[in-house]
Amino acid sequence: MKRKRNKENPLNKILVIHGPNLNLLGQREPDVYGKTTLEEINRQLQKFAKSKGVELEIVQSNHEGEIVDTIGQANKRGFKAILINPAAYTHTSVAIRDAVAAVSIPTVEVHLSNIYAREEFRHTSLIAPVCHGQVSGFGANSYVLGLEAVIGLIKK
Ligand code: DQA
To answer: Which ligand 1 atom is at minimum distance from the Cα of 86?
Structure first.
């Protein structure tokens, strides 16, 4: 049966979640995170998504509960995959990990910096074990690589 495309059940719609402080990209520790702003990253993602025939909904939040809510609604809202940079919550949030595990939507974790080459507390991701995979250390390009990976998952 052919599925109709509509707002609540779009085909190939991917949810992109940026976690805390990523709204400050461009001015935030440029030596670590680069000079590219979040708006520029989002533009790159939208351009790449368009070229691949997928739709993105992009959100940024500094609040753990809000991110948990967004992930929890992802199934009902018809998202086929999630691309997430949980930022600092990567290392602390059991709640976000449980939300990703609960929805069982293919999820890819991304980081601008190489978290394994930084302070020890960043070496552990609580989220990665419930994700399909992780991209870490390629600056803004981590997002495009991560998006390519999630598109590959939904087009399988
Ligand atoms: C980050 C890495 C995290 O350790 C840090 O807390 C961030 C950004 C990254 O993209 O490199 O906020 O997720």
So the answer is: 13
